[in-house]
């Protein structure tokens, strides 16, 4: 686990640079075809009988757009010291502690009290 | 930069991929090296090589190379995909999913990456993400039914039933003709849709759908059950009753059908006669049906019960059904029934009708029943039990059942050693019976004889497993054996092996969770989606199985001891005996390990050279580098290890008193007061009168009074939430009051004594009171064992005095020795 920590930091940087140029992506996709041949062959082999292509596509459209069900989150400011306190006292991960604090209006005492009786 | 390869290398690269898929790892590495010789910075090849290295168990190298591949070619989706696969293999799902997502960004068309991501998302229960992935997969291939079903499942798991149903209907709308009746996938899908409708509470719609679309469904039973349920829910009782009768005709041994039928007929619970009549009807209709005869015993009472019980018992004893007692013992929670049943059995014994000559019917069966009756927890009288079982054995000295019961009686007397011998004797009476073999092994373990136990179960494991029976038991995930083996080692003071076994059990639960991975795709391919959804729901609370809590609690207790030990050693500074014994044990363990290694090496040398090479190339089994658990026992952070087992336990079984008590101890020792208080409050909620609650309340107040430099906010929380004992109170007085209040209860006394120890009460007083425990009229040997353990933990000077006194009181109890 310990040696995995630094790598994640690196990948963040790489990601930002990587997404920029579209040309490089094309080159990569050329390589991609190397190993995707087997999987597409397998897919072609599965028969899809009695399926009306037009109807299927139409049905797809009727399904509607992506359900954007993410609720509106209130913007609550949290003190990093409180997050650190919760991480230490409640054995939580940092994101969870932040989330938990936010759901209690950023008040560490109410949050911890709520956790005891939860 | 990605480098295009020329055709020769391209072919080689394809070969690398194929070698990986065919698990020919050595060949794959060789080929990859060939490419890398020419193009040393070819990212995709490096990535593939990393993947193969990982499959060979060289995880660290694999990660290093995988990262190198990324630096060489960070725009290659292959490299990112591989990086994700490496993380996935290391079970770091968060990072894996990030890497997959990035690979997908580079190559949005790749079905393989999309599938890997989707599977990971459902495994992580990231349902919104899963819906998104499934949607993309459906968009890519809308003509495949699987993809529609999968999206529907994704919505269902996310709790969006309407959308789930809509997706299925949308696909059905595209079908020009109804698929053939024998189309299993369609049949399953229809039933799945039906269950979705019902889950939304729309029973009329579900019923209509059922009678229309599922009329000829392949799963007849599910259709019939659903139909009966819907009718009942809709209040159409007459039809519901008819439907349940149809089900009973199919399977008259299904308890729930009887209950539903009674309900549908409008019979109230008080109308015992009418209820009984239904069962009688089926008992007459199906002469071999057991449920119709036995189930009325649950609700009958008084003379009616006696009458029904007599005829049932007579029938069973005449037939000599060995499970008779096991089938009836649940009735013992009713005091009246507990009295009546043995009377009936004795009457039966005295009546002239019973078959006196048979070995397993009539009289013999009644004797066996009575022996079990007097051996049972709620009606225990071990002398009587002995008498009956001996009479039964007289009738058939070679009966496995009777001899097994004899061993169990001995166990309840506390004579574990003789019990193990008796059980082993029972085993010799039928060497081909796996049940009695397991039982004998378990009794050896209870007698702390791990070696003999392993030899005994070894008679039934696969003979040719490399590494002996234990490896086979691990492969077969034989949880009961591992748990008992671990507990036995714990009693013997072999912390390493105890932790090794108990952790193995925890690992098996991890494996069970991991096993889901295969089913995310398999179940869809096979179309068995209702079972799949059930499985997903089951996996969500898999660790609430008693097997897990038992092993986890045992391991946590060991870790607690480990955590407490260095502190106590530091205080006392002496304990030369123990240190010496420990050194000896460590030396012995080391020797044992060396011996094992030598043996393994010899075995490998002896193996057929041809065979060895084939097994080595393909599947190099990971060698266990800690077979005796020495590393586990030498842990630097026993409490941290304990928390790993504890966290899932508290999450899935918050209602377990033992789990909360253990959680308190662990968190208090770690100085996590808020978490400790959470456990304590939960324990109070479950059972405020538990002796441990008192002990832990005292311990908590004591710890708080002595705690320094707690953050102000924590102090505030604790002050508000912990009011059971005020800080000003004299804890010793509180404890004394508790002790006086529960004068005659051994468990409460033990709790008070432990609290005394925590508070630093005068040792002489505590010792004296432990000895006085033996005079309590209600004390049983289990309490004495607990007290003895306490004295040993405290390194009391009174251990031997107590032991002698206890042995004088219970001479047969082997564990006191």
Automatic annotation (TrEMBL), chain A:
A biological-process GO annotation = negative regulation of apoptotic process
Q: Superkingdom, according to UniProt?
A: Eukaryota
- Leader peptide range in chain numbering: none
Q: Which residues form the Nascent polypeptide-associated complex subunit alpha-like UBA domain?
A: 76-116
Q: Where is this region: Disordered?
A: 1-51
Q: Pfam families of this UniProt entry?
A: UBA_HYPK (PF19026)
- Regions of biased composition (Low complexity) lie at 28-50
Q: Which residue windows does the record flag with biased composition (Basic and acidic residues)?
A: 14-27
Question: Which PANTHER family does the annotation name?
Answer: HUNTINGTIN-INTERACTING PROTEIN K, HUNTINGTIN-INTERACTING PROTEIN K FAMILY MEMBER
Q: What is this protein called?
A: Nascent polypeptide-associated complex subunit alpha-like UBA domain-containing protein
Look up and give the organism this protein is from.
Answer: Clonostachys chloroleuca
Automatic annotation (TrEMBL), chain B:
The protein's name: Uncharacterized protein
Whether Repeat counts among this entry's keywords is yes
UniProt key word Repeat: yes
- Species of provenance: Clonostachys chloroleuca
Q: What superkingdom does the record give? A: Eukaryota
Query: GO CC terms on record?
Result: NatA complex
UniProt keywords (A-Z) are: Repeat, TPR repeat
Which Gene3D superfamilies does the record associate with it?
1.25.40.1010, 1.25.40.1040
A Pfam family matched by this chain, by name? NatA_aux_su
């Amino acid at each position: 686990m310990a040696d995995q920590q630094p790598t994640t930091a690196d990948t963040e940087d790489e990601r930002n640079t990587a997404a920029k140029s579209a040309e490089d992506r094309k080159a990569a996709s050329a390589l991609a075809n190397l190993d995707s041949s087997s999987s597409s062959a397998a897919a072609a082999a599965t028969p899809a009988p009695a399926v009306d292509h037009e109807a299927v596509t139409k049905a797809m459209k009727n399904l509607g757009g992506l359900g954007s069900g993410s609720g509106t989150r209130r913007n609550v400011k949290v003190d990093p010291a409180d997050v650190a306190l919760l991480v230490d006292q409640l054995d939580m991960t940092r994101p969870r502690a932040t989330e938990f604090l936010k759901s209690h209006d950023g008040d560490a005492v109410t949050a911890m009290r709520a956790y005891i009786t939860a | 930069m990605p480098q295009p390869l020329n055709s020769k290398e391209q072919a080689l690269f394809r070969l690398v991929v194929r070698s990986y898929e065919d698990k020919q790892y050595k060949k794959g590495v060789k080929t990859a090296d060939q490419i890398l010789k020419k193009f040393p910075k070819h990212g995709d090849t490096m990535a593939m090589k990393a993947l193969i290295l990982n499959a060979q168990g060289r995880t660290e190298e694999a990660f290093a190379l995988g990262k190198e591949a990324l630096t060489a070619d960070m725009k290659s989706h292959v490299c990112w995909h591989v990086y994700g696969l490496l993380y996935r293999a290391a079970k770091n799902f968060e990072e894996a999913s990030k890497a997959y997502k990035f690979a997908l960004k580079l190559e949005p068309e790749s079905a393989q990456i999309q599938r890997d991501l989707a599977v990971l998302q459902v495994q992580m229960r990231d349902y919104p993400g899963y819906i998104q992935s499934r949607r993309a997969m459906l968009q890519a291939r809308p003509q495949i039914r699987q993809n529609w079903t999968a999206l529907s499942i994704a919505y269902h798991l996310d709790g969006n039933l309407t959308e789930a149903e809509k997706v299925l209907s949308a696909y059905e709308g595209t079908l020009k003709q109804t698929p053939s009746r024998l189309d299993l996938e369609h049949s399953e899908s229809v039933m799945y849709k039906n269950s979705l409708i019902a889950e939304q509470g729309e029973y009329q719609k579900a019923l209509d759908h059922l009678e229309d679309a599922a009329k000829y469904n392949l799963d007849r039973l599910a259709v019939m059950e659903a139909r009966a349920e819907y009718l009942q829910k809709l209040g159409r009782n007459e039809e519901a009753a008819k439907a349940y009768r149809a089900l009973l005709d199919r399977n008259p041994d299904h308890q729930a059908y009887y209950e539903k039928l009674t309900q549908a007929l409008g019979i109230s619970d008080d109308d015992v006669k009418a209820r009984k009549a239904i069962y009688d009807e089926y008992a007459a209709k199906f002469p071999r049906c057991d449920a119709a005869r036995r189930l009325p015993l649950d609700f009958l009472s008084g003379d009616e019960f006696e009458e029904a019980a007599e005829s049932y018992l007579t029938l069973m004893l005449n037939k000599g059904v060995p499970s008779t007692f096991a089938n009836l013992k649940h009735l013992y929670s009713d005091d009246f029934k507990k009295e009546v049943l043995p009377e009936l059995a004795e009457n039966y014994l005295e009546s002239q009708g019973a078959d006196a000559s048979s070995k397993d019917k009539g009289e013999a069966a009644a004797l066996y029943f009575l022996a079990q009756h007097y051996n049972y927890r709620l009606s225990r009288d071990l002398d009587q039990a002995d008498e009956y079982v001996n009479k039964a054995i007289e009738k058939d000295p070679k009966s496995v059942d009777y001899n097994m019961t004899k061993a169990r009686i001995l166990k309840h007397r506390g004579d574990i050693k003789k019990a193990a011998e008796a059980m082993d004797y029972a085993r010799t009476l039928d060497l081909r019976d796996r049940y009695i073999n397991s039982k004998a092994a378990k009794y050896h373990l209870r007698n702390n004889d791990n070696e003999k136990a392993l030899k005994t179960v070894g008679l039934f494991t696969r003979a040719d497993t490399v590494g002996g029976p234990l490896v086979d038991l691990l492969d077969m995930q034989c949880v009961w054996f591992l748990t008992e083996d671990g507990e036995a080692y714990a009693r013997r003071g072999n912390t390493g092996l105890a932790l090794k076994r108990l952790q193995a059990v925890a690992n098996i639960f991890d494996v069970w969770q991991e096993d889901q991975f295969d089913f995310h795709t398999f179940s869809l391919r096979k179309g068995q989606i209702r079972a799949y959804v059930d499985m997903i729901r089951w996996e969500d609370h898999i660790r609430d199985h008693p097997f897990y809590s038992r092993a986890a609690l045992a391991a946590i207790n060991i870790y607690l001891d480990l955590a407490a030990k260095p502190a106590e050693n530091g205080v006392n500074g002496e304990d030369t005996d123990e240190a010496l014994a420990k050194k000896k044990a460590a030396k012995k363990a080391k020797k044992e390990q060396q011996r094992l290694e030598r043996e393994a090496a010899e075995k490998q040398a002896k193996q057929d050279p041809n065979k060895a090479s084939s097994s080595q190339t393909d599947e190099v089994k990971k060698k266990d580098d800690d077979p005796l658990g020495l590393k586990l026992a030498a842990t630097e952070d026993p409490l941290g290890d304990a928390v790993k087992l504890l966290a899932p336990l508290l999450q899935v079984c918050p209602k377990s008193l033992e789990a909360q008590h253990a959680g308190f101890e662990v968190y208090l020792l770690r100085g996590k007061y808020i978490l400790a208080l959470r456990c304590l409050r939960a324990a109070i909620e479950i059972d405020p009168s538990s002796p441990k609650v008192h002990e832990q309340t005292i311990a908590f107040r004591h710890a708080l009074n002595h705690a320094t430099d707690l953050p102000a906010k924590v102090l505030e929380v604790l002050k508000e939430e912990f009011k059971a004992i005020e800080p000003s109170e004299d804890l010793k007085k509180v404890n004394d009051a508790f002790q006086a209040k529960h004068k005659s209860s051994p468990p409460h006394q033990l709790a008070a004594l432990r609290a005394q120890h925590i508070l630093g009460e005068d040792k002489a007083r505590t010792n004296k009171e432990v000895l006085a425990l033996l005079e309590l009229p209600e004390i049983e040997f289990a309490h004495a064992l607990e007290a003895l353990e306490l004295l040993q933990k405290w390194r009391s000077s009174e251990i031997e005095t107590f032991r002698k006194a206890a042995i004088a009181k219970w001479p047969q109890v082997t564990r006191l020795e």
